[in-house]
Design goal:
The chain has 472 residues and is α+β, with helices and mostly antiparallel strands. Helix content is 45%, strand content 15%. It has 23 helices and ten strands. It has a four-stranded antiparallel beta sheet. It is globular and about 80 Å long. It starts with a strand and ends with a helix. The mean pLDDT is 92.
Length: 472
C-alpha cells in the first residue's frame, strides 16, 4: 500500500491584524496575495482592510480561487507547495510521479542501492496468481545471480520488474498532481492506469483538502482535463501519433534527429560569443536553438530521462512497447553491454526477461487488466520517446547534453546524449564552441575523481583538480 507522509507545506503564516494574531492558511494566504496584485499591498494590510470592511475572508478566498481557476490562471495552484515522502510504491507508479513539471524529486536509486527479496508490490487481483509471483521471483533471483556474477547494480537492475518497490521525496505545487486527481475520476481508464495511481491520487487529494479545501474544490470543480499542463504518461491506450512517428522512422535502434532549428545561422560573431561563455548570451539562446529527437530507450533510462522536466517529452504506450517486444524480443529488450558480452549472463538475462513478458501476455489473455499485469514487465523493455531540447539542455553546463555526456552518467543515457550531440553538431556546426561535456563549460571536473575527457578542452592534472575541489 502506497504510503504518503507530509513534512511541510505553505504558504502559511501567523500575522498581526488589528492587534490580534491570525493564523493564515494556504487558501486565504494565496487568495489575498492574488487579490493584492490589483492593489499592491502587503498581506497584513490587505487582511486588515478586509476585516475593517466587514468582509468574509473565507468567502472572498473561495470566490477568488473559483474565478481564477475558470479563467485558466495556474499561478494560484502553483503557489501552494507541499513537501512529502512517498514510500512502498512500485517503480511503475514512481515513473509517473516524477513526470509532471511542477515538482522536484529525490528518489531511492536502484543504481546505488541493492534491493531485498520481497521488496515488490503485488496488485490485489494478482495476489493469488502463481504465474505473477513466479515471474517476479525469477526476475529477482536472476538479479541476484547477475550480481553474484560480477555485474554492477547499475546493470543488474535492468531485469527487475516494474513492481519493484521504491521511495521518493517530492517537493511540488498543488497543480503538479491535479491531473492525477482528475484521472481517478475518469471512467474507462482502469484497464490502462495502475491501481496505485488512483490510490496515490486519493491520498494526495485527501491531504490537499485538509490543507487547502477551497483551492482543491475550485480546481477540481473545473473538470476539463485539457486544462492541465501536459506530462508524459505511458499508461494509456494506443497513441496513434507516437505509433505513426515510430513506424515512419523505421523503428530506429538508436536516437535520431528529427529536426534542428537555429535562428542564428549566418551570424558571423556567434562562434566568438559562444566561446566567451557570456552568461547573457547563453540565456538568450534558450528559445533560439532547438532539437527534436526520436529516442528508443529502456524503462530504466526513461525513468531517468523524464526527470529532466525542462525537456518536453512524448512517450508511446508501454502496452504497445510490450506487444512489440513479444514479437521481436531481442530487438526490444535492452541488454546492458556488461551482460551482453558474456553468453551465459546474456542467456540468463534474456530468459528471465522473456518469462516476464510471456507472463504479462498470459495474464492479459486470461482477462486480467493490463494495468495490473504491467507490473511484471522488466525494466529492460524498450520504448520510444519524442523529445524537444532547447538551448539550456543543449548548451548549458547543467543541461541534458553536458550532464549526461559526463563519464559518470548512466551508460545508456550517456550513449543517447552523445548521439544527439554528434547529430546536432553535423546540422548546426556554428554552435560547436558551446557543445560538450560539462567540464568544457566549467573549466574543471566537479566529480570526486577526474577523467581524461577534460583534456580535450583544458590543461588539467591532479594538482588542479585538488585546487578546484578545495575552492568549492
Amino acid at each position: 500500500m502506497v504510503e504518503l507522509r507530509l513534512y511541510s507545506y505553505g504558504p502559511a503564516a501567523r500575522v498581526n491584524v488589528a492587534e490580534k494574531v491570525v493564523e493564515v492558511g494556504p487558501d486565504v494566504f494565496i487568495a489575498v496575495e492574488g487579490v493584492g496584485t490589483f492593489e499592491g499591498v502587503a498581506l497584513e494590510k490587505r487582511l486588515a482592510k478586509l476585516y475593517s470592511e466587514g468582509r468574509d475572508v473565507v468567502k472572498m478566498a473561495a470566490r477568488t480561487h473559483r474565478e481564477s481557476t475558470r479563467r485558466g490562471h495556474a499561478s494560484l495552484t502553483t503557489s501552494m507547495q507541499l513537501m512529502m515522502e512517498v514510500s512502498d510504491c512500485s517503480r511503475a507508479l514512481s515513473m509517473l510521479l516524477v513526470a509532471p513539471p511542477f515538482g522536484s524529486y529525490l528518489q531511492e536509486s536502484q543504481r546505488r542501492a541493492r534491493i531485498d527479496t520481497g521488496y515488490v508490490v503485488t496488485p490485489q487481483p494478482l495476489a493469488e496468481d502463481r504465474r505473477y509471483g513466479s515471474a517476479v521471483e525469477k526476475a529477482v533471483q536472476t538479479y541476484f545471480k547477475l550480481l553474484d556474477g560480477g555485474v554492477e547494480l547499475e546493470d543488474a537492475r535492468y531485469i527487475l520488474p516494474l513492481c519493484t518497490k521504491t521511495s521518493l521525496f517530492i517537493s511540488c505545487s498543488l497543480e503538479n498532481y491535479v491531473a492525477f486527481m482528475q484521472l481517478r475520476r475518469t471512467s474507462g481508464l482502469e484497464e490502462f492506469l495502475p491501481a496505485e495511481v488512483g490510490e496515490f491520487a486519493e491520498k494526495f487529494e485527501g491531504l490537499a483538502r485538509s490543507l487547502a479545501p477551497l483551492m482543491v474544490e475550485a480546481r477540481l470543480g473545473f473538470g476539463n482535463r485539457l486544462a492541465t499542463y501536459p506530462y508524459p504518461n505511458p499508461y494509456k491506450p494506443r497513441d496513434v501519433l507516437m505509433e505513426r512517428l515510430v513506424r515512419e522512422n523505421g523503428y530506429p535502434d538508436e536516437p535520431i534527429m528529427l529536426s534542428v532549428y537555429t535562428a542564428l545561422d549566418g551570424l558571423p560573431e556567434l562562434g566568438d560569443l559562444l566561446f566567451s561563455q557570456n552568461k547573457e548570451t547563453y540565456d538568450s539562446l534558450n528559445p533560439l536553438i532547438t532539437a527534436h529527437t526520436l529516442e528508443p530507450m529502456s524503462l530504466v533510462a526513461y525513468h531517468q530521462a523524464i526527470r529532466h522536466r525542462t525537456i518536453p517529452t512524448s512517450v508511446e504506450s508501454v502496452y504497445t512497447a510490450a506487444e512489440r517486444a513479444l514479437g521481436k524480443p531481442e530487438e526490444n529488450i535492452v541488454i546492458p553491454p556488461s551482460i551482453r558480452k558474456e553468453e551465459r549472463l546474456k542467456a540468463m538475462f534474456l530468459e528471465a526477461a522473456m518469462h516476464s513478458l510471456h507472463t504479462y501476455e498470459s495474464l492479459v489473455d486470461e482477462g486480467y487488466r493490463r494495468s495490473d499485469a504491467v507490473l511484471v514487465l522488466p525494466q529492460a523493455l524498450r520504448l520510444y520517446v519524442a523529445r524537444l531540447y532547447n538551448g539550456f539542455n543543449l548548451l548549458h553546463p547543467s543541461g541534458f547534453l553536458a550532464t549526461r555526456t559526463c563519464s559518470y552518467a548512466q551508460w545508456e543515457e550517456r550513449g543517447i546524449a552523445y548521439k544527439i550531440m554528434y547529430e546536432l553538431l553535423k546540422r548546426a556546426p556554428s554552435i560547436s564552441h558551446a557543445v560538450g561535456e560539462k567540464c568544457l563549460h566549467l573549466g574543471f571536473c566537479p566529480e570526486k575523481s577526474w577523467c581524461p575527457v577534460i583534456l580535450k578542452y583544458h590543461r588539467y592534472d591532479d594538482e588542479l583538480h585538488k585546487r578546484f575541489a578545495g575552492s568549492g
